From TrEMBL:
GO terms for molecular function: single-stranded DNA binding. This is RADX protein. Coiled coil: none annotated.
Length: 306
């Protein structure tokens, strides 16, 4: 059938009601958002954002309501989609923006693709990777992996991806989303090493829409975290604490989930795998810890400083 592309959509969307099908690759995926309220009678008040791209650039795509439980888990980073009977809307201005792995990629920020169950019912097809043709010109998924030795030089709020061997994982803890709110964020702390520094990555991992992975982070697993944000915590006695926290678009993978993921081709991931082959498992296990209370960032050592 006749296809369109994202660049053409941005130029012509105001003058059209019906759009030609789109062929895109998913580059980023947000956590699933529940927006239900007691006074609103909605069956499936869910929403998820994706960043999708073709040869012309990148645009946001929103999956709405009952399409979320049907499609969310099938739409992975790297998945190629054929979309028909979608709608185009002006972008929601306050949504979070992931940092693209390819800084040269053009971003279409004024509009977004909306996938709905009706008015009109969107037709979604997943194209298996072995059927994707090079002449379609779809971009590859690119990452921004860093090593632990590079972390200390990165600015606050910098976006990056990391891979490491888990040496510590704390218990799940809760924090209120807002004061006096009944809603909580669920998170846990983890340490991971990659052989490039004596210090581990300190990771604040909020529960994403991957409960099966979040609950199974254990010492000695290979942990990949994408779209992490650097937090540079400078205290008044100039001792610096650097850690990484998840963002709205973070994805977490552990041993058993890596097969077929686009990041397995990345050079820094390959280097990490080579380093793990040189390590003694028995020696590493002796250094691992699980559970317990982990006060972080560390409180001052006296009440006066506190």
């Amino acid at each position: 059938s006749k296809l369109t592309n994202l660049g053409h959509l941005e130029m012509t969307w105001r003058s059209r009601v019906r759009f030609h099908p789109l062929l895109v690759r998913i580059l980023h995926k947000s956590r699933l958002r529940y927006y239900g309220k007691p006074e609103k009678k909605m069956d499936m008040p869910y929403q998820a954002y994706f960043e999708v791209a073709d040869g012309s650039g990148m645009m946001s795509m929103v999956l709405w309501n009952s399409l979320c439980p049907e499609w969310y888990h099938s739409m992975k980073v790297g998945t190629v989609l054929l979309l028909d009977k979608y709608t185009i809307k002006t972008s929601y201005p306050f949504k979070t923006q992931p940092t693209p792995g390819d800084s040269q990629m053009k971003r279409f920020a004024t509009i977004e693709i909306s996938l709905n169950v009706r008015d009109p019912p969107t037709e979604i097809s997943i194209i298996p990777e072995e059927m994707v043709k090079p002449e379609w010109g779809l971009p590859e998924v690119k990452y921004r992996f860093i090593t632990r030795s590079e972390l200390d030089d990165l600015p606050n709020n910098h976006s990056c991806d990391v891979i490491g061997l888990v040496t510590f994982v704390g218990r799940a803890e809760r924090a209120r989303k807002r004061e006096h709110s009944e809603d909580f964020w669920l998170y846990r702390w983890a340490h991971a090493i990659d052989g490039t520094s004596d210090q581990p990555f300190i990771l604040e991992l909020f529960a994403t829409s991957q409960p099966d992975v979040f609950e199974r982070i254990h010492p000695m697993t290979y942990l990949v975290c994408t779209q992490m944000r650097v937090i540079q915590d400078l205290t008044e006695n100039s001792s610096r604490t650097v850690y990484l926290t998840t963002s709205n678009e973070s994805q977490i993978f552990i041993t058993g989930w890596h097969k077929g993921q686009p990041y397995t081709k990345d050079a820094k991931v390959q280097n990490f795998i080579q380093w793990t082959k040189s390590q003694s498992e028995a020696d590493q296990i002796k250094k691992t810890v699980i559970g317990g209370y982990y006060p972080f960032p560390r409180p001052p050592d006296s009440f006066l400083k506190y």
